[in-house]
Amino acid sequence: MTYEQDPTKRHVHYALTELADECRHMTMFGRLIEALGERPYKQGFVLHNLGRVLPLVLRGPSVWVAALIGEEIFDSIQRATMHDERLQPLVRQVMSIHVIEEARHIRYAREDTVRRLERSPWWVRELSRLVVGAGALLLQTVLARPEMYKRAGLDVREARKAARTNAHARQFRAEGFERLRSFLAEQGLIGGPTRVFWHLAHVHPDGTEVRLLGPST
């Protein structure tokens, strides 16, 4: 993107800053895994190769909505858990750093999404809708890896079944999606046939099912 832009523009400078920040984040998380004495989870064949293909396919607003799906939902989960005193202290510190810096990244991605949508034809908006819906469903499946249950000494099949049927876990994720879902709805990026992806991800496309679970009154 910056290769074809004016290197004196502030917009380009901001994009380069974002790139540098993401490189530091990757280093930070890599060092965290190393410090904890753990091993990173490897992507399966499909997801690994999907990561190779997407940069060649996504263009315009689709790039940013894909980034927002990955950043905003993860950010919401971190905000909800990083103050839990049961977390390992180093993990809490890394989460705190990441949340602070991601706030700027998310704002940048949102603003550029709006700018690009304003000058995009209808078919670009439809492609972005597809990317949003498929991304929401995909992220729901990759947030929990089978390997993590195995490393914890649990029966993988039983643990995954318990996670899928856990109402509180579903609601927690739905609430994590809500801030992003509201923004995407405002931009007209939730609608048409792609709404089915949101239902499959257990997130209502209109947000009517996002509510706190607790004792009935």
What is the makeup of the main sheet?
none
| Residues in helix, % | over 70%
The helix-strand sequence is: HHHHHHHHH
Q: How many helix segments? A: 9
Q: Provide the residue-averaged pLDDT.
A: 84
Assembly state (oligomeric): single chain
Distance between the termini: 54 Å
Strand content: under 5%
- Spans of at least 5 consecutive residues whose pLDDT stays below 50 are 210-217
Radius of gyration: 18 Å
**Structural class category:** mainly alpha
Number of domains: 1
Label the overall shape: globular
Number of strands: 0
List the topology elements.
Layout: H1 10-35, H2 45-57, H3 61-81, H4 89-118, H5 122-142, H6 146-151, H7 156-164, H8 167-186, H9 195-200
Describe the structure.
The structure is a single chain. With about 220 residues, this protein is mainly alpha-helical. It has one domain. About 70% of the residues lie in helices and about 0% in strands. The protein is built from 9 helices and no strands. Helix 3 runs antiparallel to helix 4. The radius of gyration is 18 Å and the shape is globular. Mean pLDDT is about 85; it is low at about 210-215.
List keywords for this structure.
217 residues, globular, disordered C terminus
Condensed summary:
It contains nine helices and no strands. Residues 210-217 have low confidence and may be disordered.
